[in-house]
Amino acid sequence: MYKPLFVTGIGTDVGKTLIAAILVEKLKCDYWKPVQAGDLENSDTIKVQALVSNTSSVFHPEAYRLTQPYSPHKSAMLDGVVIDEKSIVAPKTNNRLLIEGAGGLMVPLNDHFLVIDLIEQLGAEVILVSQNYLGSINHTLLSIEALKQRKIAIKGIIFNGDENASSEDYIVNYAQIKHLGRIPKLPTMYKKTIANAGTYISL
Ligand SMILES: Nc1ncnc2c1ncn2[C@@H]1O[C@H](COP(=O)(O)OP(=O)(O)OP(=O)(O)O)[C@@H](O)[C@H]1O
Ligand SMILES: C[C@H](N)[C@H](N)CCCCCC(=O)O
Ligand SMILES: [Mg+2]
């Protein structure tokens, strides 16, 4: 049986949800976002569901649905709840499960438990989403360093947006991880665009 795939990023807003949709469609796997902070009426689960065409992927309900768009520990506090990591248990499925985190790896879920701890708890392997901007080499290598320190398996890295071949080469050569592909800026967010974008990723 496959380990779950955990899609994390070098920060928030780097394109995890978009890339999760492309992967769910490509692999026909299930999708689960354990903690949604804010945007409940247009959650990441709703977005991915709207972009996926196949009918075998199952979209599992979030463990925590928080009303405010902040770091989950703060959103939880504002809603008067405390996220209990023991209650975040992967949904049962016979299909491969893709999990999307919130923000990057060191984002807190409560006062002692971070997204990276959740990846370990779930026994998942990681796909890291990076974007090319000035400063992104540092953010990317720090993320990889944290994963390696915990001996978390890294399936590879996907770059999102404009190409920067020299940065991408530096990162994969230095960190010795697999370049799984790059998703260009997509002009439209239709199901067909997402299905076609699967060809940009080797997995
Ligand atoms: N390759 C792309 N082409 C066009 N638009 C993109 C691309 N990647 C991301 N976007 C847009 O950028 C925004 C942020 O992307 P996305 O929601 O996937 O980020 P995220 O990493 O999932 O954020 P969060 O931490 O909130 O979960 C969205 O509006 C998304 O549609
Ligand atoms: C609300 C937002 N869309 C994300 N899901 C949460 C991002 C938390 C980032 C926290 C941080 O790194 O400072
Ligand atoms: Mg997202």
UniProtKB/TrEMBL annotation:
CDD domains with a match to the protein in the record: DTBS
Any one Gene Ontology BP term: biotin biosynthetic process
Cofactor requirement: Mg(2+)
Keywords associated with the record: ATP-binding, Biotin biosynthesis, Cytoplasm, Ligase, Magnesium, Metal-binding, Nucleotide-binding
Active site: K33
Record's catalysed reaction(s): (7R,8S)-8-amino-7-(carboxyamino)nonanoate + ATP = (4R,5S)-dethiobiotin + ADP + phosphate + H(+); (7R,8S)-7,8-diammoniononanoate + CO2 + ATP = (4R,5S)-dethiobiotin + ADP + phosphate + 3 H(+)
Annotated binding of Mg(2+), by residue: T17, D44, E100
Organism expressing this protein natively: Mucilaginibacter phyllosphaerae
Pathway: Cofactor biosynthesis; biotin biosynthesis; biotin from 7,8-diaminononanoate: step 1/2
Subunit-level organization: Homodimer.
Main subcellular localisation: cytoplasm
One GO MF term attached to the UniProt entry: dethiobiotin synthase activity
E.C. no: 6.3.3.3
Location(s) in or outside the cell: Cytoplasm
InterPro entries noted in UniProt: DTB_synth_BioD (IPR004472), P-loop_NTPase (IPR027417)
Gene Ontology CC annotation, any one: cytosol
PANTHER family per the UniProt record, alphabetical: ATP-DEPENDENT DETHIOBIOTIN SYNTHETASE BIOD 2 (PTHR43210:SF2), DETHIOBIOTIN SYNTHETASE (PTHR43210)
Name used for this protein in its record: ATP-dependent dethiobiotin synthetase BioD
Keyword field contains Metal-binding: yes
Gene3D superfamilies: P-loop containing nucleotide triphosphate hydrolases
Family: Belongs to the dethiobiotin synthetase family.
Role: Catalyzes a mechanistically unusual reaction, the ATP-dependent insertion of CO2 between the N7 and N8 nitrogen atoms of 7,8-diaminopelargonic acid (DAPA, also called 7,8-diammoniononanoate) to form a ureido ring.
Residues that hold ATP according to the record: D13, V14, G15, K16, T17, L18, D44, E100, G101, A102, G103, P184, K185, L186
